[in-house]
Design a protein that fits this description.
The chain has helices at residues 4-7, 15-22, 25-30, 61-76, and strands spanning 33-38, 41-47, 81-92, 101-112, 115-124, 127-140. With 142 residues, it is α+β, with helices and mostly antiparallel strands. It starts with a helix and ends with a strand. It has a 6-stranded antiparallel β-sheet. It is built from 4 helices and 6 strands; from the N terminus they run αααββαββββ.
Length: 142
Amino acid sequence: MMSAEESQPILPVSHAVQGMLATDRSLNLLGIRVVSAGGDQAVAQMEVTADMGNGHLIAHGGLIFTLADTAFICACAVVGQMPVTSSASIVYLSPGHVGDVLTATAEVRHRVGRVAHCDVTVTSDRGVVAEFRGSAISVSAR
């Protein structure tokens, strides 16, 4: 199985995304790292730590959602606009485990005006963990 890095070229983190990430303190708290973002695509990673386990001793679904949402919003970002999530859903297909490095690979599928629709696949070395689909609307940057 090809990793996210092998299946598509790695793009640098765009200027639009760098500005957004600079003030997002939750990424440091969760150890989320945006590997690439630009050209309607983004890749983000997070290692599942023991503190991220739920009552079933697997990665908490809300944290997997946060990783996917991060890649999603980075893929939707364009210069001069600030994307905000208008809707999102996720389907969990297999568990993430403590010690896994989860990779969220996002791609914008459609853009119409200020609205972007994006799909995100979250994987680990074991396979696909989740599929996320979201819509964002871009508002004027602060």
